[in-house]
Amino acid sequence: MVAVVVLLAPVIFFTSQIVPVVLLGIFYGVLGRPDGDLENLFAADSYWPKVAVFSLVSAMMIGMSIWFLRSWNEKKPLDSLMLKNFPKKFGRFYEILGVYGWYFFGTFAAALILSAFGVINVDQQQELGIAVPGAAPALLAVFILLVVLPPIAEEILFRGFLYNRLVKYSGVGWAYVLTSLLFGIAHLEFGNMNWIAAVDTFIFSLFLIYISQKHQSIYSAMLLHALKNSIAFFLFVYGVV
């Protein structure tokens, strides 16, 4: 069963990204639109069309996670995904900030060690495929693309669906490692093999699992994920990265 869950998570992750694009290609073909129109849809400065597409991707990722839980006779899939418990105590938000601090320290230490041994290029920048926005509508679109959609969909799939299934069959330790490993691989950027991004997301996943399990709420992981992406958003917008 562990192998099934481990294989299923990447299938959901990549299928949810491929299928909407394929369907759009078919739709454009039926309308007789040139291939360039579809390519323009994913251009770096095509902000709101990207929001529409990635909203579909996120909806499919969440829908497939719930569907597979139901297919396994899970009577309360929302409970399994920890979607019914919102962290109501204000002190828990301080805990989320504290966990982010530990994550930052951990990934900084890892980068120093990897740099010292020359294992990977720690200066490699993540390719977002988005042009730096200027006008307010474009800023809002990029904010949704970076800060809103990924924390919701990815936390439900990886920390809600994947970790909580794995821990039942493999134990806590293996569930931590396998979930984080798959999360890191998913962010490897296969076009340019961004290993530092994979290492960063592997480490980050460990803390996302910790806070979601400590609070028994996927929303805590979403908030932590959104905090990290918010910082990345402001650095991106102001040209720091």
Description:
- The chain has helices at residues 2-30, 35-41, 47-71, 77-80, 91-117, 136-170, 172-186, 195-215, 218-237.
- It has one domain (2-237).
- It contains 9 helices and no strands.
- Helix 3 (47-71) runs parallel beside helix 6 and helix 6 runs antiparallel to helix 9.
- The longest helix is centred in the middle third of the chain and has 35 residues, at 136-170.
- The radius of gyration is 18 Å and the shape is globular.
- With 241 residues, it is mostly helical.
- 76% of the residues lie in helices and 0% in strands.
Give descriptors for this structure.
241 residues; mainly alpha; 9 helices; 76% helix
How many strands, which pairing sense, and closed or not: the largest β-sheet? Answer: none
| Strand portion | under 5%
Structural domains: how many: 1
* Tally of alpha and pi helices: 9
Low-confidence stretches: none
Order of SSEs, N→C? HHHHHHHHH
Q: Topology, please?
A:
Elements: H1 2-30, H2 35-41, H3 47-71, H4 77-80, H5 91-117, H6 136-170, H7 172-186, H8 195-215, H9 218-237
Question: What is shown here, in short?
Answer:
The protein is mainly α and 241 residues long. It has one domain (2-237).
